[in-house]
Amino acid sequence: xxxxxxxxxxxxxxxxxxxxxxxxxxxxxxxxxxxxxxxxxxxxxxxxxxxxxxxxxxxxxxxxxxxxxxxxxxxxxxxxxxxxxxxxxxxxxxxxxxxxxxxxxxxxxxxxxxxxxxxxxxxxxxxxxxxxxxxxxxxxxxxxxxxxxxxxxxxxxxxxxxxxxxxxxxxxxxxxxxxxxxxxxxxxxxxxxxxxxxxxxxxxxxxxxxxxxxxxxxxxxxxxxxxxxxxxxxxxxxxxxxxxxxxxxxxxxxxxxxxxxxxxxxxxxxxxxxxxxxxxxxxxxxxxxxxxxxxxxxxxxxxxxxxxxxxxxxxxxxxxxxxxxxxxxxxxxxxxxxxxxxxxxxxxxxxxxxxxxxxxxxxxxxxxxxxxxxxxxxxxxxxxxxxxxxxxxxxxxxxxx
Length: 401
What we know:
CATH topology: Growth Hormone, Chain: A
Oligomer: single chain
CATH class: Mainly Alpha
Mean pLDDT: 87
Number of strands: 0
Distance between the termini: 36 Å
């Protein structure tokens, strides 16, 4: 097989696995908060439950990223898929807050496990075939695939809840996660990965994590990326927590809003796919990926404020539009991360990004849930909007090293 054919196969597998990774999440996202509210749980408690997810991810990000860099990306990805299936099944059948919180914790562990290994595998496999090969196109296509997977899942959820209970999408999500794990076993070839750290698994894990922390402390570009990811964590978690009750209030209740909101989420993820597809062109137009990412983050923050408007049409348009500039920014932030990270610590550095995102999400969901109960979900959206827009400042005057 020629090098070009090898690169194309690696890219196809990466894009397909990315889509299938996020398809189950697409089934769950539109109905998660509505399902919890239907089971009698208030927004403040839901905020704490969601924070439990973020806390589990935050605590395990570096160890699991180091584990992927040490023992390999494939076993970590398979474990993540299986845990995701278990969490979905618990959400489908759980009825009390502590059981549902446990499902969120399991989901957080799965998220920590899969936050970087697949992308790290793609970059290392590509560079093993051609060290000079560009990764921007693959990352952009994966961003499109992620968004389309989420959109397809959201449409599937809308169809399911139209004829069945709010728990039905979680059963489908569990099955899809198992299929994803099976395809990881079949497709993820790690022959291109660099050598693992010497000295045994535990010593190698500790060495890898320490190296990742050292890079984060000493590398100005990675420090700025972590600030951007924290801002994104506040914006995304705030929207995911507050938008469902905001639209439910505008549409007349949880049951009335479930189907329309799922369609709205699907359209929003379509917007994210469009943004990811435009990312390479945006970087060219603005002559630097950092500038294009900064413009995307700032625009997304402004549009998030528009979701708070108490008119369904305006809020719906802003909701969908929010994902377009953020879809432009995220693949470019990933590209900047890979340029700064070495192969031996690539998954660890990606875990640092997710750690920043989830750490900020813990604060956001805990505080915003209580704020929404005291004021309104719409008014509370202005807080994450402002913080997300401010995150664009970290991408200005980008350091060369």
